[in-house]
Design goal:
625 residues, elongated, binds adenosine-5'-diphosphate, alpha+beta, 3 domains, Four Helix Bundle (Hemerythrin (Met), subunit A), nine-stranded mixed sheet, binds magnesium ion, 23 helices
Amino acid sequence: MSSKVETRQFQAETRKVLDIVINSLYTERDIFVRELVSNAADALEKFRHLSLTEQPEFDAHVPLEINIDCDDKKHTLTIADTGIGMTAEELETNLGTIAHSGSGNYLEELAEAAKKDVNLIGQFGVGFYSAFMAADKVTVQTRSWDGSEGHEWHSDGGGTYTISPCEGLHRGTRIILELKDDAHEYGQKFTLERIIKQYSTFIPFPVKVDGKKVNTVEAIWTRSKNEITDEEYTEFYKFIGNAIDEPTYRLHFSVDAPLAINALLFVPQENFETMGMGRLQPGVNLYCRKVLIDQHSENILPEWLRFIKGVVDSEDLPLNISRQSLQDNALVMKLRRVITKRFLKYLREEAKKDAEKYQKFWKTFGIFLKEGVTSDFEFQKELAGLLRFESSAADPETMIALDEYVERMKEGQDKIYYINGSSRAAIENGPYVEMFKKKGVEILYTLEPIDDFVLSHLGEYEGKKLVSADSSDLTLPENAASDDAGEETTKDALASEIQDSLCKWMKGILADKVKDVKPSSRLVDSPAMIVNVDGMMTSSMERIMMAQGAPEEQLAMGGKKDMEINPASPLIKKLADLRVKNETFARDVVEQIFDNAMIQAGLLVDPQQMVNRNYRILEQMAENK
Ligand code: ADP
Ligand code: MG
């Protein structure tokens, strides 16, 4: 060694940081490569920036790039850049001290974090020192852009480091790592290629491993929209989403305030989750100035947007933030809110532009938005406008938005009605829509099991209550045009004293099954229907909870039912007679009416009991003929 070698002590804090870094078992050790490559990219960026104003002369021709060389025999790894470089003084301050260490309880917090979870130490801005996770000895050779004398910094991560002049250097910095025995993999080309592809693909300078450029895909999200072709977007989508299809929707946007965001989001063609591929991994990666911070990020978008693929880049994020601290980082939460709202607004605009295309999207991905309504209060309002349902007022191919329903509402109507059923035909032939049809009131058909949960979570839309047509105490707005018809039905109905006594008697028979039996003002053709009393749970919700094995007490709590009977129905009228003539038979008929109504509500009945009863009824009828 030359006589000019000077040995220096690390600043006390730096020594402790080094101890922590070296002695902590870093579970994601790969990231030291990311840190060093990022430093190299920063140095290149600084040089590029400076060139705009300073016109540097020294080594002006040297191309801006990062060169990585591995030697699997000598077990070394060299990362070299042609960036801004460092003077001797800069070497000393940058690699001998820690800039932020003066503030607060920096060290205690760092040590504490390292004890708890070694990944946390990343956020303390000690990127360079992570080199010692993989290396026994680290040498930094560097020469500043100003052409002043080059220097070499060397340390084994103990208490000291040396700085000495170094001849023959070009502009930039070269970091040579002598790898630890258990870190020899970092001397292998394919390991380095893998790590760089993962974390540093989008660095805006060539990154070469043993002379070959590894980062071939451009970070197009930072370019301006009108400079990017559709082909480039699709190409990028396929790369980032590991996809072979074309995206259906694409949202590319940047904002500067309140946060700097560049985002490029894609909606794929297919929903692989419903295609039996299991739960999707989040598809959006989080970057800070083109360097990957969080792959398949669980934090940058809500879980229910896991079908989106793409990138979010924010300069405001610290590069060193760890996965764990992303979770409750206020900045990330803000990013998430801004991006989510922007995406939902985009969908709304797209739906307006091309309703048919949106409906196709809805059929594939609507389930995720429904999940959003039931699991995420924060975006309910935005999501509500994106929901689509079949409707009595639309043809079966068309699904409508709540907005359209509201626009068509009748005078005096202040509620939005819906009814669940297994199919459009089942609903339209069932008892619940009879009065709607007659009065010409629109009703939404909720054909998916989750729909009633979605609507009951929403509660209302634009101030209009959302009401299931299977709830009791439903009064539809009067419709002048069909009032006469309404009166006709009541005209040939049973007299009200008979109605009351019939109901009372029926309630006695169904005592353990219904809360009450009442004459209905809503039935037109059907003899009876089941309604839910407290309106908390619809029959469809009960069906799902039953299927999921909810305890009976819980079901009983939410599911108090009434049976409404139609006093004008021929069957009900005959039942009033039959009750007097043949009570045993009449009791069977009551039970059967109840079971039929249950089936029409989509609820379970005891099949064995029902079949036996049904045979008794048939037998009785055969006898009477
Ligand atoms: P940070 O990148 O968060 O500032 P690091 O520990 O990674 O922290 O790096 C410390 C400092 O060392 C950097 O701010 C930079 O000034 C300097 N530095 C590190 N690597 C290089 C490099 N390749 N070229 C020039 N300067 C560098
Ligand atoms: Mg750094």
